[in-house]
Amino acid sequence: MTTPSGSAAAASDVKPKTIDDKKDEASKGPTPDPFLGKQSDTHCFLLDLELYFAMNPVKANTDEKKKMLVLSLVKGNTSEWKQRETMKLFPKDDDPEEKKKAAKETWSSFKQRFRNEWQPVNVVREAQAKIKQIRMMDRADEYVNQFRLIAMDTKYDNEALMRFFREGLLKSLQNKIMLRMDGEPETLDEWYKLAIKYDNQYKLVMANRKKREPIKPKIARKEKEVTVG
Fold it and tell me: Which residues fall in a compositionally biased region of kind Basic and acidic residues (predicted)?
């Protein structure tokens, strides 16, 4: 017979595990944005998925779970493809043979089929065209992130990528980096770091200057009023 104290001890042993399981089930990080069938979004969508899987191992600990998450996120003009793939996972009449086929397919194989269906035919050529056109619009860190994503598919060496990155920077930032005392950066990572560093410094100076600006006009107006009086 189990004593009351023994029951309490058993209950206390079980409770922490339940709490831990709930913690594991909670989503970490944002769920990837839905994929609407736009070819240019394919690469980023798959990267976001891999990041989500890494942050949520319990939710993505089987190939089947990963496939189901993809199917839940594809929208827009992907409906026909989604229907076909859903029928493979959940066949009519619960066909055991079809289920076996779907279960055998690995996540890597499924992901490659997804790429074949939705990624541009010539990814390299498209990435090479994009890398020549991308320009820094406001923040250097945003430009670096966008450049990195595109650079992955270009197959260009670091020498070429450094040239394209430099040309895409704002002219003032480009000059500041190239004219620094230590000379021009020799690696792509160094270009990234310096661009972000100098851009942040510039924005901080401008923000501090802006804080002081409103004081000057008020003082000037007051002096003018006193002079006229």
Answer: 14-27
